[in-house]
Each structure stands twice: as structure tokens, then as C-alpha cells.
Amino acid sequence: MMSEAIKTKGKITQIIGPAVDFRFPHGSLPEQGNAIHLKREDGTTLVFETMQHLGN
Length: 56
What we know:
With about 55 residues, this protein is mainly beta. It has strands at about 10-15, 20-25, 35-40, 45-50. The protein has a two-stranded antiparallel ribbon with strand order 1-2. A two-stranded antiparallel ribbon has the order 3-4.
């Protein structure tokens, strides 16, 4: 069963190799294993998978 997409704006805070850190508003963290879709200015979309919650 597929669930509806939840649109929450986050911010990329750091990129180290293949790892990308995002920051989301309090209470809006995506579940581990969920996809994060990033729409770029050129119209393409990058898809990331949530692997770990790091905290503050």
C-alpha cells in the first residue's frame, strides 16, 4: 500500500561524498527508508533515501 506524499520543506546542510544531511522543521522528520525528492531549478528531480536521524 502506498501512502500519500507529505510535502515538507527541508534544507541541505552538508554534503560529504554520497552522504547528504538535511534539516527539517521540528516534528517534520521523514521516517527512515522514506524518499526525499529534491526538485532542481533545471526541472530535474533528485531522490534521496532517509537512512538515519542524527538529532540536533
